[in-house]
């Protein structure tokens, strides 16, 4: 069972991380934590640093600690975030074969493998979890990316039976709600109250673009390196017929392998391919 989902000493830092309050996580006082909570708390703090654009510092911090599977997984995530994708994927695959029962390996390894387009490997690793809400949330995300809303909803409903009113289950349910639409948009908006980026996405679905812009600006003011806020700002600017050049360059400099950029490159290549066929006909 996930030690982070229930009421306990890690609940505050866990919830802060998943609400995107990364500085709060980094500054969290771990001096009074029990011995078994020190490593999970440190992992969350390292992940918060990575999410705040400080992957290089994380790599320096954990240098020489690869023998700890949790920290080896963090290292792989940091490598992936700075563009060292080959090394990161190789490390994730290695950890999946040697430490697949480790909760951090499952979550971070699954994150890396999915980001690298290895969905089957990611799911194989994530489904080995024993009551990990983070694993559940990632499985839900993968199902949604594969347009299997039915499976995502089924996963949330199953987790609700044992996790009840956990923050992560509520968040995952709201992701599904954004895909289902209708009144679910407003429900998701209320659930995302402490999460400006997610709330902005709900605002966009509700057609409230100025409110979405305000929420994204709030997120960026909180953290200038918030790549999710930047990527969603790009989407908002497209919808608002505004220039996106500066935002795209900002995202590229902070997270060169961000899923938005890789998807944009893929779609641009597909468009150029299709356009070339018509150009050839015109030339003929």
Structural features, described:
It is a single chain. The chain is mostly helical. It is built from 17 helices and no strands. The radius of gyration is 20 Å and the shape is globular.
- Characterize the overall form: globular
What would you call the structural class? mainly alpha
End-to-end Cα distance, whole Å, is 65 Å
Instruction: List unreliable stretches of 5+ residues.
Output: none
- Give the overall average pLDDT: 90
- Largest sheet: number of strands, sense, barrel closure: none
Q: What letter string, H or E per element, gives the SSE order?
A: HHHHHHHHHHHHHHHHH
Total number of helices: 17
**Which radius of gyration do the C-alpha atoms yield?**
20 Å
Count all strands and give the number. 0
Proportion in β-strands: under 5%
Helix proportion: over 70%
Strand-helix topology:
Layout lengths: L10 H8 L3 H5 L8 H17 L3 H7 L7 H13 L3 H14 L4 H13 L3 H8 L6 H13 L3 H15 L3 H14 L3 H8 L4 H10 L3 H14 L4 H13 L5 H10 L4 H25 L1
Helix pairs in contact: 3-4, 3-5, 4-5, 5-6, 5-7, 6-7, 7-8, 7-9, 9-10, 9-11, 10-11, 11-12, 12-13, 13-14, 13-15, 14-15, 15-16
């Amino acid at each position: 069972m996930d030690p982070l989902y229930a009421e306990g000493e890690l609940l505050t830092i866990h919830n802060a991380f998943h609400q995107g309050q990364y500085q709060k996580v980094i500054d969290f006082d771990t001096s009074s934590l029990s011995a078994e909570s020190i490593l999970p708390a440190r992992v969350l703090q390292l992940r918060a640093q990575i999410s705040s654009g400080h992957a290089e510092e994380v790599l320096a911090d954990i240098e020489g600690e690869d023998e700890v599977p949790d920290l080896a997984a963090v290292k792989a995530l940091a490598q992936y975030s700075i563009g060292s994708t080959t090394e990161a994927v190789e490390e994730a695959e290695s950890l999946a074969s040697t430490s697949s029962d480790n909760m951090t390996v499952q979550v971070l390894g699954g994150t890396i493998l999915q980001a690298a387009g290895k969905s089957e490997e990611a799911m194989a690793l994530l489904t080995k979890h024993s009551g990990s809400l983070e694993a559940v949330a990632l499985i839900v995300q993968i199902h949604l990316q594969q347009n299997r809303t039915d499976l995502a909803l089924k996963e949330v409903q199953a987790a609700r039976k044992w996790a009840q009113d956990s923050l992560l289950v509520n968040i995952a349910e709201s992701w599904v709600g954004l895909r289902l639409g209708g009144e679910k948009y407003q429900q998701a908006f209320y659930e995302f109250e402490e999460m400006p980026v997610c709330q902005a996405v709900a605002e966009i679905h509700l057609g409230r673009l100025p409110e979405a812009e305000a929420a994204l600006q709030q997120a960026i003011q909180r953290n200038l390196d918030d790549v999710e806020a930047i990527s969603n700002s790009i989407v908002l600017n497209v919808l608002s017929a505004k220039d996106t050049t500066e935002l795209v360059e900002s995202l590229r400099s902070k997270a060169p392998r961000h899923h938005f950029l890789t998807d944009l490159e893929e779609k641009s290549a597909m468009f150029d391919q299709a356009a070339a066929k018509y150009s050839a006909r015109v030339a003929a």
